[in-house]
Amino acid sequence: MNMTRRxxxxxxxxxxxAGALNIPFSGRADAAGGDAVEVDRWIKGACRxxxxxxxxYVGVRDxxxxxxxxxxxxxxxxxxxxxxxxxxxxSMYHPDRLKYPMIRDEKGAFKRVDWNGALDAVAAKFKELxxxxxxxxxxxxxxxxxxxxxxxxxxxxxxxxxxSNMVEGNPRLxxxxxxxxxxxxxxxxEPAGSYAxxxxxxxxxxxxxxxSECHPIIFRRIARQKLKEPDxxxxxxxxxxxxxxxxxxxxxxPADPGTDLAVFHCMAREIIKNNWIDNYYIRNLxxxxxxxxxxxxxxxxxxxxxxxxxxxEKITRCPAANIKEAARLFGSQGPTMSLWTMGLNxxxxxxxxxxxxxxxxxxxxxxxxxxxxxxxxxxxxNACGGVRETGTLCHLLPGTRPVADPKVxxxxxxxxxxxxxxxxxxxxxxxxxxxESLGGENDASKAxxxxxxxxxxxxxxxxxxxKYIKGMKDAFLVVLDIFPTRTTQLADVILPAAFIxxxxxxxxxxxxxxxxxGKCVEPPGExxxxxxxxxxxxxxxxxxxLIPWNGDDAPKNYxxxxxxxxxxxxxxxxxxxGMTYERLGKLEAGLQWPCPDEKSPGTAQRxxxxxxxxxxxxxxxxxxxxxxxxxxxxxxxxxxxNVFLRPYxxxxxxxxxxxxxxxxxxxxxxxxxxxxxxxRVPEIARAQPNAYLEINPEDAEAYGIRNGDxxxxxxxxxxxxxxxxxxxxxxxxxxxxxxxxxxxxxMINRVTIDAVDxxxxxxxxxxxxxxxxxxxxxxxxxxMTVISNVDAPFPQKIS
Amino acid sequence: MVITGSAVLVDxxxxxxxxxxxxxxxxxxxxxxxxxxxxxxxxxxxDDFEDLERLCSRLKDEVCEIVDIAHIYVxxxxxxxxxxxxxxxxxxxxxxxxxxxx
Lengths: 799, 102
Description:
The structure holds 2 protein chains of 2 kinds. By secondary structure, chain A is an alpha/beta fold. Helices cover 30% and strands 17% of the residues of chain A. Among the domains of chain A are: 177-377 and 639-644, Dimethylsulfoxide Reductase, domain 2 (3-Layer(aba) Sandwich), CATH 3.40.228.10; 661-776, Barwin-like endoglucanases (Beta Barrel), CATH 2.40.40. A 7-stranded mixed sheet of chain A has the order 5-4-19-18-17-6-7, with helices on both faces. In chain A, a hairpin with a 2-residue loop joins strand 2 and strand 3 (64-70). In chain A, helix 10 crosses helix 14. Chain A is globular. The relative contact order of chain A is 0.14. Chain B is an alpha+beta fold. Chain B has a single domain, classed as 2-Layer Sandwich (Alpha-Beta Plaits). In chain B, 28% of the residues lie in helices and 32% in strands. Chain B has helices at 15-22, 49-62, 78-84, and strands spanning 2-10, 28-33, 39-46, 66-75. The radius of gyration of chain B is 16 Å and the shape is globular.
């Protein structure tokens, strides 16, 4: 049979897809042989976007990236990729890439300088600010998109070198409540189980997550299970919008934003009333507590009595019958796996919402078993690995351990060869307080005078953004990024950074899995890896001994930093000492911690003897020899998890007569965060060229709004003007706006609220009160705004 | 030209009907189905990525038993050369239509 090149490509592509799906494919595919994409080599790595941790292979030809494909051996995605995974990397060749260091001159324009000039200026100014205003006068603000080695390095530089805990990162905006939830319930961060539980679960409880758009590959794994066995597999979706995720749901729980605490308590009540509980777990693994006082199970039952389905329907608008059915599926049709993300986390009661989902798993025994887990999905590719695990937040040290704990400080000081007492015992400022405290040298009310920001865009991503713009403008702001952004518009120094495939390094995804990406190509112009930038600043500030990985060989630098980190957390619950670069380089799927030595296969399920190596490592945690399941991070040393009696509290700013709508915000499948990368991919930009206001038809009719009409959306903090999208997705009274748009008129964080959770300090992006008015007929606003010119002035007058 | 190796996820029991209907689309080549009949392996062919997205939307709209389409392998062909030469075609950034006109 004659086979054309096109036929070969098609067969090869089909064979690859069938292989990923475990579907036997005919021998004809063999005739196609090899790769259809012509590249010099394929380099293993991880996807740059959400927290799923999809394994990829990056194709390189003549020193440029020529293609990308899913890695069928990756245990996260089995070869599947979404549109961002396939196309997002092309942004790295966009002409807007920052290629040279720049310093703002006296007239306010950026001037190209060489690296020595830029780094000397940064180091000198940081030194000056620290000398004049104290060690905490210069802050670090990082990202869940930095490589693990980078976050670790900046954390070490600040906490060990500058002796300052003014270290934060954007995971405070997305994952802090999940951390708070895990730590308060189980004593330590991150899930017990793995994505592998998806294929073993019978019931899925998806709450506060539009997974089909935000984690499409995970959604696909669940959808495959549901489609295979639609009568046996159950899906419950708790979400105020009828999202595309809800399309596969058996039960939809449409609770008003911020009211789901009542739903979760009501489900617990129904579960107990119908005896769908696990008495072994309740007796041996649960501690019932108000947070201040330990109580017994009966007190918990009594507490739940107030949450009858009918009363909860009145609070939440969620039908009582739906809650009852959800409780039945959750409690009696296990194993049950819950998955959630920002809908639970970005709240003033985010930690409590996380606690209450954990409650359901604990009382029903749906944890530490195959297919049963309470699993927080991460929003960014390295929020878990890079920030949570390395402790790159103001209150943490590596291993997600509190800086306030003298034993932890002593251990880290020893690992870093620092004198005892070097690390400050007092936590620094959390993100919102940090930006509130940022300002000019002459402003005595502002404690922080300088900041280094890397791989994130707070001038667009902070809630109630404009409140913080002046501080960023007045302070000495150093920004590392690959493109001009709203934040570089406020910077004094711009340092051009390398893209993931131009440097390599480790990402750790939602399931405690670390994966190594190899360096594929050189960065453009004079762009440099963040690690090199941080290490060179350290050298200039006399801290070369602390951060010695400052050579020109990027992979060698990253390996040195990784080994330093591995050693630092070797004797912790989060040990990944067995994850050497050599192993991570060879293994297709990476490894999950705990991974205490080089023979360890990693850990898919924590707290279970025979599966979690720490259960038999008394040098790290103490576990009774007879215990099969034991929550070894329990602060009371009883091996129990806390079931909380949290009172019902709604949102910080519920609708009222002046602002009668709930406003909620989120992502769309095509765009990523503030759109700085994805908006530079033409196909993606065209697919979602601008933000919009999603509104229910009933509300639209009441306000005389038709599809495409321009609507002014106003909160107590600011306003946007957006085109209307009239759809039935949202309940009446609920508005939705995606947050990727850089256009000033449609930057939704000018409208959102900056109230934070008491425990996690995470802001309530998901809920505020708003009002609307129709302001015009349809107008073409599909401008696909990006900031291309570094000298373009910030749109707001900064007084 | 973009050529994919993709999975078409379909409602249980609908595979035969869907395979028959896919024959009406010259850009789709069906290869094999999973044992459960819920995943079909296909090639999709399109002028560029945007055209591919349009094709997927059309398929999902017109064949209601299709739940999702997932690409596992994408051959970009011409696009590779464009990327290799460092060119990004800004002229292709034409504006889409309004929502209500879609």
